[in-house]
Amino acid sequence: MLNLKKNIMLPALLMGISLPVWSIDKTVVATINGKNVIAEELVLTAQQNKIDYNTLNNSQKTVLLNGLINRVIVADEARKMMLDQEPLIKVRLKALVDSVLAASMLEKKTREIKISNATLQKFYNDNVATNKQIQYKASHILVKEKSLAESLAKKIETGEDFEKLAKANSIDKGSAEKGGDLGWFNPTTMVPTFAAAVKKATKGKVTAPVQSQFGWHIIKVEDSKPITPPSFADSKEKIKQLLMKQEVSQYIEGLKKKYKV
Fold first, then answer.
1. What is the DSSP string of 151-193?
2. What are the φ/ψ torsions at residue 145 (nearest 5 degrees)?
């Protein structure tokens, strides 16, 4: 798992639209009132419907083409009725055009970004290799009431079996069947209060009841060990994508300063 000190989010525009790089196929697949419909429109129609055009057989392509023809005919009829001039529809059309243009611009910008191997290595050294974490092996009993959690903790402290009490009382049925066993986990995958209690727990001892949005936990940490960071080779592509997204974000922020918003 690639754990990074900084969380750099992909710009929303890139998350909304993906435009693969294609060579435009101008093969005519249909003619409607003298106006040609080219193959590229068919490929884009498949993409809009989240379909991989290359996996379609001839029969499926025919169905897709018929749908495209229907859309073109109905859209042309709408233009004849001047629907494209209605205020609300004009706003929607502008939004669609802006989305495609913005996504295309960001895709172009992304293709232009060049990140050296030295930059990738430095980021790995600074953010991945040095990001030491510990994973834990623990069990828990989850109940709704604090009083019950306190009662169970006392029973365990006086020698009653943790696994039996977990099977009989825990409302976390998945772990209850295994005597409360959660296996090995990284605390970052747990809710904050649970993670904090695990990190402070004494090995082999039961914690005081810990509250989360799920109820009250009694936790017993059985073991811990360091998590080995992924190698540079395994991290390289993820780091590259992250830095490219960071570059795009900075590009957008630069545009905001350029334009009067």
1. HHHHHHHTT--HHHHHHHH-S-HHHHTTTTEEEEE-GGGS-HH
2. -100, 140
By C-alpha distance, which of 162, 143, 153, 144 is closest to 222? 162
3-state SS assignment for residue 93: helix
- The pair of structure tokens assigned to 169 is 């009382």
pLDDT at 152: 97
Residue listed under structure tokens 């890139």: 14
Q: Which regions of 25-102 does DSSP assign to beta strands (E)?
A: 28-32, 35-38
pLDDT of residue 101: 95
Contact partners, residue 116, CB within 8 Å, separation at least 6:
none
pTM: 0.59
Q: Which of 5, 2, 8, 6 is nearest to 246 (CA)?
A: 8
d(CA 89, CA 148): 60
